[in-house]
Design brief:
Elements lengths: L5 E5 L1 H12 L3 E5 L9 H6 L4 E3 L4 H13 L3 E7 H5 L3 H9 L6 E5 L16 H6 L5 E4 L3 H12 L5 E5 L3 E3 L14 E4 L4 E5 L4 H13 L4 E5 L2 E3 L3 H9 L3 E9 L4 H11 L5 E7 L10 H7 L4 H11 L18 E2 L3
Parallel strand pairs: 2-3, 2-4, 4-5, 5-7, 6-7, 10-11, 10-13, 13-14
Antiparallel strand pairs: 1-8, 1-15, 6-12, 9-11
Helix pairs in contact: 1-7, 3-5, 8-12
């Protein structure tokens, strides 16, 4: 595990997909008119015979991908998260999820990482995809996880929705990080508060845990890249060992990771105080930057610290999150 600020890399997903396609002739790439923005210009340039530009017609693109999968191909479909889920939902249900076809839906710009307002902010994509039978839902945190998840989902027998940050991707994990589609990753253990998180919120959760430990709080951090099917055993085991639970996600608190953890705790009969960090049943506004939106809508390191403090019924002032200075090519927790 590396320390912030994290070095960043460009287009780890695009490179991983090209490497996979070099090894497997069944892999085909579809783009919804966001080719460069979704890193698949690399695929288009190297393997043009297996690249399909579907244009701004996402519903049709999903239907094409379902047909390709029926013919034995392994289609990877690319656009922004809102256009991969919200717009073509009916086609995903009937052409992909219901027939349980191996279509990989890749949604970039998750949550409020987009400054483009409600039309471009995928704040309910996990909730939509979680509700679909047969769908596997994944939200990865860094370049190491991206590189490993691409070949893993290529071998998955059913449909997959993969959320990806766009642009500069941090390198948080060392090269020996091994992603699993079955198991969440317990990064640290502690018997006071357990933080469950994933995706763009992992760096903030790690920073929050470090600050809390500085005030003597024993913190467990669990990285949950696969939201569905959830690793129920790990969630229950870690939560049972803690007094309180915090979830942190770049998504609405309704229907995402927080809901999945809450459902798990309830079904296991675990009476634990739960605090959910995420968008609180609201659309976000447009802005000039993502970090401004994370602060405005309560998705920062400080918000995770405050949630943990509140969950533990601490009445004293919570510790302040330390700012991490960044230079060009670096990424710090918000």
């Amino acid at each position: 595990m590396r320390e912030p600020p994290y070095q960043t890399v460009q287009k780890p997903y695009g490179r991983a997909l090209v490497e996979l396609a070099r090894q497997r002739e069944d892999v085909v790439c579809l783009s919804g008119d966001l080719t460069r923005q979704c890193e698949v210009d690399l695929f288009r340039d190297e393997l043009p015979d297996r690249f399909v530009h579907a244009g701004m017609a996402e519903a049709n693109m999903i239907g094409m991908a379902g047909a390709m999968a029926r013919e034995g191909l392994n289609p990877f479909v690319h656009t922004f998260g809102v256009f991969a889920t919200r717009r073509p939902l009916d086609q995903i249900v009937n052409a992909v999820a219901y027939p349980n076809l191996p279509v990989r839906l890749i949604g970039f710009m998750p949550g409020i990482s987009s400054p483009g307002g409600p039309s471009h902010q995928a704040i309910e994509d996990i909730a939509l995809m979680r509700a679909l039978p047969n769908m596997t839902v994944i939200d990865v945190a860094d370049a190491a996880e991206i590189t490993q998840i691409v070949p893993l989902i290529a071998d998955h027998p059913g449909p997959v929705y993969l959320r990806l940050k766009r642009g500069e991707i941090p390198v948080i994990f060392d090269e020996d990080r091994r992603v699993s589609l079955e198991q969440a990753q317990v990064i640290s253990t502690g018997d006071e508060v357990a933080i469950f998180t994933n995706g763009m919120m992992l760096s903030a959760a790690l920073a929050a845990a470090s600050t809390l430990r500085g005030r003597g709080v024993r913190v467990a951090v669990v990285n949950v890249p696969v939201i569905k099917p959830l690793d129920v055993d790990t969630v229950v085991r870690v939560a049972r060992s803690a007094r309180a639970v915090v979830t942190a996600e770049n998504h609405s608190i309704i229907g995402g990771l927080g809901s999945a953890v809450a459902e798990t705790l309830a079904e296991a009969g675990l009476g634990r105080t739960l605090r959910r960090v995420g968008l609180r049943d609201t659309f976000a506004e447009g802005a000039l930057s993502g970090p401004y939106l994370f602060e405005r809508y309560g998705l920062t390191t400080q918000h995770i610290i405050d949630a943990a403090w509140n969950a533990l019924d601490r009445t004293d002032e919570p510790p302040a999150a330390a700012a991490t200075p960044v230079e060009a090519g670096e990424y710090a927790p918000v």
